[in-house]
Amino acid sequence: MTAVQAPPRVALRQLADLRHTSPGRLRLLLAVLLVLATLAGLVTGLTARSAITGTADLRDRVQPLLAEAETVHSALADADTTAALAFITGGLEPKDLTDRYDRDLADASAALTAAASRVPEGSRAAEAIRAVSTGLTDYAALIATARTLNRQGKPLGASYLSTASTLNRDTLQPQAEILTAEARDEAEAGYRSARSTWWLTLLTVLLVALAAALVVTQAHLSRSTRRTFNVPLLVASGLTVLLVAGCALVFARQRAELGAADKDGSAPVETLAEMRVLVLRERANEALTLAARAGSGALEKEFQAISPRVSFDGPELDPVRDLAGTAAGQHSGYLSLHEKIRDLDDNGDYEGAVELAVGEQTRDAFDQLTATLDAASADRRAAFDAEIASAGRGMGALTVLGPLLALVICLFAVFGLRARLEEYR
């Protein structure tokens, strides 16, 4: 005759009845220990794996995407500046300026290509990349026409230069800003993912529950068997403490390194990139004002509005305080030269103003400023790389050792309670 399977309600009643007998209570305690230890081991491995995946994505995709977005924005701003400076020299542009302009366009194109491979198709970032890529071709064509007309001495060249600069400033750079903003959002999400807060919270709950269950089990055995210690359960408790300590050490260290990567790497690089774009905007406004041959105008007013925003005093730049101080001094020196340029132009000495603007003194002062910003950015990118590499250490071992240690805890729990259960046979 085939046995009838007990309904779930009957099975639950039988399970509840175990509480009323000594061996039944031991079996329940053993089951709880095995379930908690197994879950703790599994979640330890999953938490470590999630942290590894998040940290790797932050290192290999998200942070490079942010760097590429900042490169696009900076290259566009530098191209605008360089094209204007080359234009006001008149005739055949200096080779170093044309080479720099060509390099800016090549850098922007390369960064756009690399960034396109890191963002989802159809995303806001992907749309921004497409818009900049398309507009960059139109911008280059306008600059080429402006150059040709300028070499021929035709005033219409200034109009083409102005149109190209408007396209760069009002369309391309805003799209680059969108790409940068999306990359920053990705970076914030990347840090959250790398910290694996949800998994870590679940792991903490399970480890605390496992430790508590071991204490309750040993207390129960001590009362019921008149034996103070159960050696296998003591070993299981020690291994649990070891697992807790190992997880605490590895994850606390990882979070500290991620915090340092953000504070000492990502944050300063973002601020430095913003300052670089602002000073390039100043220089472009200076050159475009001269190219218009109309004295101080809207672009000079914009220059005066931008200058107070160029600040190197924020806490984000504390990790590069010496370089930030150097940049601040260099920026002040450049502003002094700009005032002289405007004085010459506003007092009718246009040729003198152009000569000073494109001359060695002003160019060296501005190039030293951008070189200092580039050096500070390179230093902070290296700091980020070091911190993020350190953040991943120990995680790989934990994905294997955590579950193995939990398995050993299960074995010692079985050894500790099996002997007591055999006493009831």
Q: How many structural units, i.e. domains? A: 1
What is the number of strand segments?
A: 0
Radius of gyration: 33 Å
User: Which spans of ≥5 residues are poorly predicted at pLDDT below 50?
Assistant: 1-6
List the helices and strands and how they pair.
Layout: H1 8-17, H2 22-88, H3 95-116, H4 124-151, H5 156-195, H6 197-225, H7 231-292, H8 298-306, H9 321-346, H10 350-358, H11 360-391, H12 395-422
Helix pairs in contact: 2-3, 2-5, 2-6, 2-7, 2-12, 3-4, 4-5, 5-7, 6-7, 7-8, 7-11, 7-12, 9-10, 9-11
Task: Explain the overall architecture.
This protein is mainly alpha-helical. It has one domain (about 25-420). The protein has helices at about 10-15, 20-90, 95-115, 125-150, 155-195, 195-225, 230-290, 300-305, 320-345, 350-360, 360-390, 395-420. Helix 4 (about 125-150) packs antiparallel against helix 5 (about 155-195) and helix 9 (about 320-345) runs antiparallel to helix 11. The longest helix is centred in the N-terminal third of the chain and has 67 residues, at about 20-90. The radius of gyration is 33 Å and the shape is elongated. The two termini are about 30 Å apart. Residues about 1-5 have low confidence and may be disordered.
